[in-house]
Amino acid sequence: MGESVENFAFGLELLIIGLGTVFLSLYLLSVFLYFSGKILGPKEMRKKVPIEEKKESKEPELDGLSRKKAAAITAAVYAMLSDKKSYKIISIKKRNQNWKR
Fold first, then answer.
1. What would the mean pLDDT of 69-87 be, rounded to a whole number?
2. Residue 26 and residue 28: Cα distance in Å, rounded?
3. pLDDT tens by residue, 88-98
4. Alpha carbons 75 and 64: distance in angstroms, whole number
């Protein structure tokens, strides 16, 4: 029984050393990547693109898609899937994303 306790202690010691080595190396890698990102950051690689002015339209948009186009696409998809109508399209409004806090 004395030998199995020694083997267990030796195994536990190896486990702690191995896990410590892995987590220490991952931490050092993350520190290296953080500072290399600060030094070589994407600011140098980015091209300066002029911001286009938004054209004013009377029709509100949903993520770059006009409401008329969104309604037409929704109607087309609904018509294509009409033979399997086990659902009903109620609204195409964007849902409230406040639950993601």
1. 75
2. 5
3. 666 666 666 66
4. 19
Cβ-based neighbour number of residue 70 at 10 Å: 15
Identity of the residue numbered 32: F
Mean pLDDT of 15-30: 97
Q: How far apart are CA 21 and CA 24, in angstroms?
A: 5
Q: How far is CA 50 from CA 26, 41, 47, in A?
A: 39, 20, 10
State the pairing for strand pair 65-66/61-62: antiparallel
What pLDDT, on a 0 to 100 scale, did the predictor assign at position 13? 96
Question: What tokens does 57 get?
Answer: 């339209």
Q: Is the pLDDT of residue 16 over 90?
A: yes
The residues, any chain, with a CB within 8 Å of residue 66's CB and separated by 6 or more, are 57, 59
Distant-in-sequence, close-in-space partners of 78: CB < 8 Å, separation ≥ 6: 89
